[in-house]
Amino acid sequence: MLPFWIALQFLSSLPVSLPGMPEPRQMGRSLLFYPLVGVLFGLLLWLASNLLSATAAPLQAALLLTLWVLLSGALHLDGLADSADAWLGGFGDRERTLQIMKDPRSGPIAVVILVLVLLLKFCALWVLVERGVGAQLLLAPVLGRAALLALFLSTPYVRAGGLGAALAEHLPRRLAAWVLAITLGGCLLLAGIWPMLLAAAVFVGLRRAMCRRLGGTTGDTAGALVELLEMAVLVGLALGL
């Protein structure tokens, strides 16, 4: 179970303590449990929604979004902010884009993108809460983290060394394909075809943009993928797709 605890420690702010520095092989295997972490997030959000059922819809949506951000420790929002700055400031240049991503400061474009993404998530949650959100709360967190597995399975990691490189190098690819297929099959049964097609379109579009600009992915662009895909799925559900 060590790979699961590695995944949970990395992807969440939950109090997980590991016995020591994991081996690279265990790091790679932890990717297999990313969708399961998404399931845990979704169940916690669903539980919170039930506990807040008597709360007015706008406040409930705001509290659910706050819990969502706290659960992830804003990890993926940070990647989204860095990617937004780099994509604008990189002027299409690969090395400049990668350099800007390393800068911990956030510029105006990062702030604007973060506000828009969180605003769209909040409004979509508001609509879903008014409809009686139910098990749909599982879909976006699960698909977001399954997208990370799909990304590392299909896309080169462009920064040498570091956590992302270890994940990509030691990922058991055949087993990862089975985990991804089972996860997507479960999501398809939960939500139907249209949210899945929307998620697939977002994944393909963002992956293509990464490959054209960078030749692959980084930790920041992977985080941006999670946030944008989650937002798209929530908005799609709110629109009735």
Question: Which features characterize this protein?
Answer:
single chain; globular; 12 helices; mainly alpha; 241 residues
Write up this protein.
By secondary structure, the protein is mainly alpha-helical. It has one domain (2-238). 76% of the residues lie in helices and 0% in strands. It contains 12 helices and no strands. It has helices spanning 2-11, 24-30, 34-51, 57-72, 75-89, 94-101, 108-131, 139-154, 162-170, 173-191, 193-214, 219-238. Helix 4 packs across helix 7. The termini are far apart. The mean pLDDT is 92.
In short:
The protein is mainly α and 241 residues long.
Report the span from N to C terminus.
Answer: 37 Å
Choose one word for the global shape.
globular
Structural class: mainly alpha
If you average the pLDDT, what whole number results? 92
Q: With helices defined by DSSP (H or I, 4 residues minimum), what is the helix count?
A: 12
Strand and helix order:
HHHHHHHHHHHH
Output the radius of gyration: 17 Å
- Describe the biggest sheet? none
Which percent range fits the helix content? over 70%
Strand content: under 5%
Identify low-pLDDT runs.
none
How many strand elements?
Answer: 0
How many domains, as an integer?
1
Present the secondary structure layout:
Layout: H1 2-11, H2 24-30, H3 34-51, H4 57-72, H5 75-89, H6 94-101, H7 108-131, H8 139-154, H9 162-170, H10 173-191, H11 193-214, H12 219-238
Helix pairs in contact: 1-2, 2-9, 3-4, 3-8, 4-7, 5-6, 5-7, 5-12, 7-12, 8-10, 8-12, 10-11, 11-12
